[in-house]
Amino acid sequence: MSTYNPIFRSPITTSLASTSPPAELTLADLTGAPVIHIQGEAGDLLQTYFAQIPAKPGELVEVGEGLLARLTPAEFYLFGLSASASLPTTADLDNAFTQARRFAHATDYTHGKAVLRLWGAAAPDLLSKICGLDFYDTVFPSGRVAQTSAAKIKTLIARHDYDQTPTYYLHVNRPLGQYFWEVAWDAGREFGLTATGN
C-alpha cells in the first residue's frame, strides 16, 4: 500500500506584487500554517495543552507558536503563526476528547484555508475599505477575533499585534485566496502596501 503525501502549494500568486523587505504596511501569504477547528465540550481539556484559553467568544490568546480563538461558547479556532508552527494535531486532540468521553471533535482546515497576515499602522484603514467592521482600537483591539464578510466573502479576522503594531490574520476559503489577495492588494496601494515572503 502506497503512502499518500500531497505536495502543498498556496493558491496565492504574488507576482503582481513586488516582494520586498518589510515596510510600513505589509501583506504576507501564510497559507500552509496549521489551522484546526474544534467543536464541542472541549474548553477545560484545552487547558491541558495551553496555559490559558479565551474566556469569551470573540477573544483570542497566544498559545506557544500559535493563536487560539473562541468563536462561540463551544467552538474554538487554533492556528499557527507560521507554516512550521508546532501545535497539537487533530489526532492528539481527538484522542484526548475520546479518553475524556467528551462530545467534541477537531478538524484540520490547514489545506482548506488561505491565510494572510496584514501588518502596519495603516492596516485598520485598509481593512475598513473592504470590510464593514469598525477596526478602531477600542472596538477591535489586539486579542479580538470575528467571523464576518470582507471583500464580499466569508472571512475570519483575528488581531494579534506585533511590536505594538496592528497585525491581522485573515482566513478565507482556499479557492478564494487569490481573489482575496488581489482585493487587499488593490485596497492597500494608497497606503504603500508591500508584500513579504512570510
What can you tell me about this protein's structure?
With 198 residues, the chain is of the alpha+beta class. The chain has 2 domains: 94 residues, Probable tRNA modification gtpase trme, domain 1 (Gyrase A, domain 2); 75 residues, Alpha-Beta Plaits. Helices cover 17% and strands 33% of the residues. It has 4 helices and 11 strands, in the order ββαβββαββαβββαβ. The protein has a 6-stranded mixed β-sheet with strand order 8-9-10-7-1-11, covered by helices on one side. The chain is globular. The termini are far apart.
| H/E series | EEHEEEHEEHEEEHE
Shape: globular
How many domains? The number is: 2
Helix proportion range: 10-25%
CATH architecture of the largest domain: 2-Layer Sandwich
Number of helical elements: 4
**CATH domain class of the largest domain:** Alpha Beta
For CATH, the homologous superfamily of the largest domain is named as Probable tRNA modification gtpase trme, domain 1
Major sheet: size, sense and barrel closure? 6 strands, mixed
Instruction: Tell me, rounded to a whole number, the average pLDDT.
Output: 90
Structural class: alpha+beta
Q: Radius of gyration from the CA trace?
A: 17 Å
How far from one another are the termini?
A: 36 Å
Q: Could you say what the CATH topology of the largest domain is called?
A: Gyrase A, domain 2
Beta-strand fraction estimate: 25-35%
Low-confidence stretches: 16-21
